[in-house]
């Protein structure tokens, strides 16, 4: 009984026990915050890529460099893998489809869709099959 009473009064190991109980929770929380931050960066990259792709197509048509939808897709996909986007080319899918008839007279209209399958950045912590998809219309003067 004296040994049990002595152990109950001894507080030297309390901090390590509390750390051992709470550290996994804090580490998991920090990993989740990092992963959500990286997902948001990827979302912003996809959104910016679609915006810059629209600008690229408009400028190319103004320079009389009329690219077909396949050429636009290839250029946009290569833009997405470079800085500042740095998207994984295996997870990036770009689709450019002509829209007939165009909503604007005298202009060509394309439907741009950028899909990005989010990678599992920190093993085992993400929900499978999350895809960021962003679509917008491209109008260029013919």
Task: Give a description of the structure.
- This protein has 142 residues and is α+β, with helices and mostly antiparallel strands.
- The protein has one domain.
- Helix content is 49%, strand content 21%.
- It contains three helices and three strands; from the N terminus they run H-H-H-E-E-E.
- It has a three-stranded antiparallel β-sheet with strand order 1-2-3, covered by helices on one side.
- Helix 2 (14-62) runs antiparallel to helix 3 (69-81).
- The longest helix is centred in the first third of the chain and has 49 residues, at 14-62.
- The chain starts with a helix and ends with a strand.
- The model has no long low-confidence stretch (mean pLDDT 89).
Summarize the structure in short.
This protein has three helices and three strands. The chain has 142 residues and is an alpha+beta fold.
Order of helices and strands: HHHEEE
Number of strand elements:
3
The best one-word shape is rod-shaped
Arithmetic mean of pLDDT = 89
Q: Tell me the β content.
A: 15-25%
Q: Quick one: biggest sheet?
A: 3 strands, antiparallel
List the helices and strands and how they pair.
Elements: H1 2-9, H2 14-62, H3 69-81, E1 92-99, E2 107-117, E3 131-141
Antiparallel strand pairs: 1-2, 2-3
Helix pairs in contact: 2-3
